[in-house]
Design a protein that fits this description.
This protein is 60% helix and 9% strand. Helix 3 runs antiparallel to helix 6, helix 4 crosses helix 5 and helix 10 packs across helix 11. The protein contains 11 helices and 5 strands. It folds into 3 domains: 57 residues, CAT RNA-binding domain (Transcription Regulation, Sacy, Chain A), CATH 2.30.24; 101 residues, PTS-regulatory domain, PRD, CATH 1.10.1790; 99 residues, PRD domain (PTS-regulatory domain, PRD), CATH 1.10.1790. A hairpin with a 5-residue loop joins strand 2 and strand 3. With 272 residues, the protein is an alpha+beta fold.
């Protein structure tokens, strides 16, 4: 049994769950129609349930600060992402809705928020990015404006946060470290990589999982350090510099075999 706290619009309600005592948002086609604040209602079978977990503000304060249309848009994007990728944490609903509201405001005022990591985000989180692109049509339908590819990149990070339980700031830091690593490789090897190439995507993916292994203290199951150092000394040196930078940024040691593994990968990309 639920008690209605606020009718957001015809497709959304803020309610109190009588069993758990939690405030939740229910989203679904026509779910808000005909309801009033304070009334009790049975659980609607087709509705999507989003629990609000912020400790900084009450649920009512959170929903009052955002136009309900953006909450609905975020809910539909999450639903589309779940159809393609499986369950997401619903904690991302309000942060995503808040970002969409700001993105729409910027679009209406012809202002842009540049996303210097959009190509890296697209390569790092390809599935999440594909789901985020569906948001362009959803936002256009509900708000009447088109958002930029830069904004799609930011929405991708919210979807990734919901999928991995890694917050948006952490995902952005991974994208930043990957980009810096790529730039360092390009500088050391005097070699440019186009962001839309398979080689770029493979290198981005390799560095992403290298970061993940390093954070978890895991070891790569391929030790090519000696071969790489002898066969490709310049490439190995570039890989070593990347690893040194990564150690400084992450505050942990990169496993020795990662240098050889990365060097071999760089060499393959350059020879492709």
């Amino acid at each position: 049994m639920y008690r209605v706290i606020k009718v957001l619009n015809n497709n959304g309600l803020l309610v109190l769950d009588g069993e758990s005592g939690r405030e939740v948002i229910l989203l679904g086609n026509g779910i808000g129609f005909g309801h009033k604040t304070g009334e009790r209602m049975e659980s609607p079978g087709e509705a999507k349930r989003y629990e609000l977990v912020s400790r900084q503000a009450s649920a009512l304060q959170q929903v009052n600060s955002i136009d309900p249309v953006f909450i609905e848009a975020a809910g539909r994007i999450i639903e589309a992402a779940e159809s393609a990728m499986g369950p997401l944490s619903h904690d991302i609903l309000i942060p995503m809705a808040d970002h969409i509201a700001l993105a729409v405001s910027r679009a209406r005022e012809n202002r842009e928020l540049p996303n210097p990591f959009k190509y890296d985000i697209k390569a790092l989180f390809a599935g999440e990015y594909q789901a985020a692109t569906e948001g362009i049509g959803i936002i256009k339908e509900l708000a009447g404006v088109s958002i930029s590819e830069d904004e799609v990149g930011y929405i991708t990070l919210h979807i990734h946060a919901g999928l991995s339980r890694e917050n948006v700031a952490a995902a952005m830091e991974v994208a930043r470290l990957v980009q810096d690593s790529i730039r360092l490789i390009e500088k050391e090897m005097d070699f440019g990589l186009a962001s839309d190439t398979l080689g770029y995507n493979r290198l981005v993916s390799h560095i992403r999982y290298m970061i993940a292994r390093t954070r978890k203290g895991e070891r790569a199951n391929l030790d090519m350090e000696d071969d790489a150092k002898k066969s490709f000394p310049r490439t190995y040196e570039a890989a070593d510099h990347v690893c040194q930078n990564m150690e400084q940024r992450l505050g942990v040691k990169v496993a020795p075999e990662e240098r050889g593994f990365l060097a071999i990968h760089i060499q393959r990309v350059m020879q492709a």
